[in-house]
Design brief:
alpha/beta; 6 strands; six-stranded parallel beta sheet
Amino acid sequence: MTLSRGWAWLQDYAYVAYWQVHGFLFRDDPAPYLQAAGREDQPVLLIPGIYEKWQFLKPIADDLRQAGHPVHVVEPLGYNRGTVAKMAELVSAYLAAANLQNVTIVAHSKGGLIGKYAMTMPGAAGRIARMVAINTPFSGSVYARFFLVPSIRALSPSNSALRSLAAELSVNHRITSVYSSFDPHIPGGSELPGAENIELDLMGHFRIIGDSKVLKVIRSVLSGKGASGN
């Protein structure tokens, strides 16, 4: 088990390295993702994790575009280094500016916290139908407390803002939390009370993004089937 987890960790960082380099060398234009046809009434908004640009979620964007869903990104998020509240304000502003309705948020890691926060905001709540959060530290990560960087320390279980967000239960029933059976960055797991929780037989924090099992969960949620569609 130790060897397999160690190998999964190495593969995870290889995945990160590939997509970070890809995002730096290839400035993908998000505009074509808005031109999908067939599911215009079910737009998707992607929210990446900390130190991730939207291109990090490109495997998801490509899959959803192929399925006909317009895929939106909030470019001002950049590498997502701001506070959860500040990033949620940018998400809310984008939803209003684009006049989006019946939005499904698909988010990774910290992006899920931002998505949940946005779901509680008066200006955004009515525009967001649901969220699929991938490996999101809803209860924080014990490792975050060892970092000096404020943006990472904010993900500690003792952070007051994170604890307040965790105590907000009213939107949890509209969230699907999908996560790895072993996540080296979130040892406490990503289970969210009151949400649809789906643990997959996968390892890693990042590499799960492009896995077919995760893509299947996202498509099932969008079709209204939820976990029963897996």
